[in-house]
């Protein structure tokens, strides 16, 4: 009997020791409180087992606020393995509002794809972006917790630097990767022994010519804690844009020697490519952190214009007249173009235009608006298509960039516009067949309405390097006999000027103001021989004064003869 009591006591001691060891080896490791976009179903917490043996989580519990999740007997973590606690693991039918839809293959089943090679279960939680706390409690009541008091950013997780370094919030940092989190993988802020990172992938020059030799350069750094092992780098041209390195897409390969910690090694690969958009991928062989072993480069080779172009920009709407921001696109090609998953925005962020199949026909205009209803209230006669983006990047009145990308993420067009001082006046493209990057291919709208959505831009006219005038008939006789009752003044002026056009008598007295510091392009205007007050002028010679003010001031004068009237 005494022997049996000793055996039971020993078993309890061993069980307590096992729980204590397990408590020391299983840790909260990563927390995504600010889910990507607006779907709270994408919140999750990661656990990590730092030990060399699998650990059962039976009797453990996860606590967040008033919610408690108890682990089942089958829940365990493999040695050096991870377990994801997801607010919503899968949904039926499958969509992106679940952990599996966002970080898996999106078929509604977890664990059936290479990227789903770590366990995940559902747990109750409702995390807040700016502040919160989660806790993991072992069967022997050992509590681990993480408290955050700041927002890591949209879709960006909090990562623990070292899993076994206690609960101090100072050892948690925001994820350093562009994708924002590392579920089921070593944290981006955790150091590894053998870890090479591709820190930069670029070309010289930035915009190479077609079929001309240029250099692809890849900078590789040892970000590990020890001298790295020898490795190799391979460059691919992803011809079918599937982000998979297929057979026949390899461009070149190079050996990477062992590098000391923080040492950088640059690979230079001379290359020649045809005209067009190319997606190039640089890949290192696997090491302790595989997710920093690959980097892509979207490269535009040669000069060419896209099929869909930016044609007009309303960056400074007149808010007093309830106007809204908008951008007009135009299909300059001879074929339909589908805008599904194209992107529009500014230099900071671009958002998806539409998830639907929307085709723009040749010669068709399309409006992308911040507010669909406000646009149609401003332009009630507009009959084309207007799309209101779900997320609109506010355009800066003091100057900004408008960026358009295609469905593959390639830059289609980028327009830099200056400060927009006039409210309710758009920024118009002059020539469809010239680059959007040419500063002198844009000018503010000169239409009296302030914009020309759905029709030819008001600035699509000829320009000259100086003021040119044609006046006919000259002389003319405004006697209302139906013959030469008015004269036509045809003018061609430099781009980007404000036009003043006045008529004076021979003594220098102002007779008529036709334009006064108005943004204009080349055009025509008639003078019917009347003063500003509507009265008729006498016969004689009058002086036409024309002034164009832009980067520089230019003045031209011409004589207009008014014949004797009957």
Task: Give a concise summary.
By secondary structure, the protein is mainly beta. It has three helices and 38 strands. The strands form ten sheets. Strands 8-7-2-1-11-12 form a six-stranded mixed β-sheet.
Highlighted features:
single chain; mainly beta; Immunoglobulin-like; 4 domains; six-stranded mixed sheet; 38 strands; 37% strand
Gyration radius from CA atoms, angstroms: 34 Å
Question: Please, what is the oligomeric state?
Answer: single chain
Helix content: under 10%
Counted by DSSP, the helix tally is: 3
* DSSP summary, beta strand count: 38
The CATH superfamily of the largest domain is identified as: Lamin Tail domain
- Helix/strand class: mainly beta
Overview of this structure, please?
The protein has four domains: 2-174, Lamin Tail domain (Immunoglobulin-like); 196-301, Immunoglobulin-like, CATH 2.60.40; 308-444, Immunoglobulin-like (Sandwich), CATH 2.60.40.1260; 468-562, Sandwich (Immunoglobulin-like). Helix content is 6%, strand content 37%. The protein is built from three helices and 38 strands. The strands form ten sheets. Strands 8-7-2-1-11-12 form a six-stranded mixed sheet. It has a six-stranded mixed sheet with strand order 27-26-21-20-30-31, with no helix packed on it. The longest helix is centred in the N-terminal third of the chain and has 24 residues, at 2-25. The termini are far apart. Residues 6-20 have low confidence and may be disordered.
């Amino acid at each position: 009997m005494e022997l049996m009591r000793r055996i039971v006591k020993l078993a309890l001691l061993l069980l307590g020791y096992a729980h204590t060891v397990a408590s020391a080896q299983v840790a909260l490791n990563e927390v995504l409180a600010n889910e990507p976009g607006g779907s709270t179903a994408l919140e999750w917490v990661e656990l990590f087992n730092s030990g060399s043996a699998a650990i059962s989580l039976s009797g453990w519990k996860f606590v967040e606020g008033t919610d408690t999740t108890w682990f089942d007997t089958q829940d365990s973590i493999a040695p050096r393995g991870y377990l994801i606690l997801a607010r919503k693991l899968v949904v039926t039918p499958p969509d992106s509002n679940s952990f599996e839809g966002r970080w898996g293959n999106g078929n509604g089943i977890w664990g059936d794809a290479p990227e789903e090679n770590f366990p995940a279960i559902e747990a109750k939680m409702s995390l807040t972006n700016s502040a919160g706390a989660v806790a993991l409690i072992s069967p022997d009541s050992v509590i681990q917790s993480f408290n955050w008091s700041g927002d890591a950013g949209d879709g960006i997780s909090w990562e623990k630097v070292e899993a076994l370094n206690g609960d101090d919030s100072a050892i948690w940092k925001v994820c350093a990767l562009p994708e924002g989190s590392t579920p089921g993988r070593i944290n981006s802020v955790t150091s590894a022994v053998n870890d090479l990172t591709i820190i930069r992938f670029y070309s010289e020059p930035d915009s190479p010519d077609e079929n001309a030799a240029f250099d692809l350069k890849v900078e590789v750094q040892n970000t590990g804690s020890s001298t790295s092992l020898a490795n190799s780098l391979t460059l691919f041209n992803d011809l079918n844009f599937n982000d998979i390195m297929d057979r026949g897409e390899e461009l070149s390969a190079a050996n990477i020697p062992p590098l000391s910690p923080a040492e950088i090694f640059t690979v230079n690969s001379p290359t020649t490519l045809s005209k067009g958009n190319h997606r190039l991928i640089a890949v290192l062989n696997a090491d302790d952190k595989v997710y920093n072993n690959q980097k892509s480069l979207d490269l535009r080779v040669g000069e060419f214009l896209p099929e869909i172009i930016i044609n007009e920009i309303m960056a400074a709407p007149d808010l007093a007249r309830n106007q809204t921001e908008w951008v007009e696109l135009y299909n300059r090609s001879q074929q339909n173009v589908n805008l599904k998953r194209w992107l529009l925005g500014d230099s900071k962020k671009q958002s998806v235009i539409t998830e639907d199949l929307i085709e723009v026909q040749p010669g068709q205009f399309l409006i992308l608006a911040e507010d669909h209803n406000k646009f149609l209230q401003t332009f009630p006669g507009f009959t084309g298509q207007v799309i209101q983006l779900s997320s609109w990047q506010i355009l800066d009145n003091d100057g900004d960039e408008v960026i358009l990308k295609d469905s593959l993420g390639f830059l289609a067009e980028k327009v830099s516009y200056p400060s927009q001082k006039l409210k309710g006046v758009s920024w118009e493209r002059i020539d469809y067949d010239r680059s959007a990057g040419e500063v002198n291919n844009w000018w503010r709208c000169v239409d009296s309405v302030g914009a020309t959505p759905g029709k030819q831009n008001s600035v699509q006219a000829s320009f000259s390097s100086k003021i040119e005038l044609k006046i006919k008939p000259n002389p003319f006789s405004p006697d209302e006999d139906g013959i030469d009752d008015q004269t036509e003044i045809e003018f061609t002026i430099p781009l980007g000027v404000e036009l003043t056009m006045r008529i004076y008598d021979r003594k220098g007295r102002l007779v008529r103001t036709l334009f006064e510091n108005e943004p204009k392009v080349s055009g025509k205007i008639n003078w019917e021989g009347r003063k500003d007050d509507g009265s008729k002028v006498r016969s004689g010679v009058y002086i036409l004064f024309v002034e164009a003010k832009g980067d520089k001031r230019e003045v031209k004068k011409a004589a207009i003869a008014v014949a004797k009237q009957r």
